[in-house]
Write a structure and sequence with these properties.
32% helix, alpha/beta, 8-stranded mixed beta sheet
Amino acid sequence: MTSTDQTPAAPPAHVAPIRTFHPRRGRMSGRQLDALDRLWPAYGLDIAELDGPFDPTALFGRPAPLVLEIGSGMGDATAAMAAADPDRHYLAVEVHTPGIANLLELAERHALGNVRVARGDALDLVRALPEGSLDALHVFFPDPWPKSRHHKRRLIQPGHVALLRSRLAPGGTLHCATDWAEYAESMRETLTADPELVDTHGGFAPRPAHRPVTKFERRALTAGRPVFDLVHRRVAATAAPARG
């Protein structure tokens, strides 16, 4: 179909971009420091060093459908999904250094050759990806930026969604999850309004079995905050079956 995409360009170099995340470092254990030192050269990608288009096949060393996860946290869920889905590549983007190191260690421990980790602004990475290059895109528990004056920093908003969707292959899925009810409604309205995304469940989706329950999610449920999943598929003339 003819795209109506008006993908926003990167901001001019002289304009400070509005970040959708807090840069975070945090303390690291000796095990995490060791994993970062040893494994980053082989499994890591520094987004700030990208210069021009990015070829995911070169990063993984083989072609395969690609899943991009924005905000992988400590990486436990990413590692579990990658282990259960060896025929697809998983590229996790994170800014929390201990989380990056932990996922690298998990990938080594479980021999996950289909995992790579990127550090930096996920939107910059998405801009560098070829259009239609993603089989799935996961946005699990992004910062809700609850104050009204900070809503402009939210990841799921129309301009960003147009960019994210443009990188999905026809039939590819955009799967979001949040424990913030107001953000969940905002996400639903934004995703539903996109002309090239179709809601696979007609509203909030049941938690797919392939999305592991993380420690963060357990804390939310214990605190009485329900979790909302949204799964949308990029439409095409002949859409492939939705995959998470």
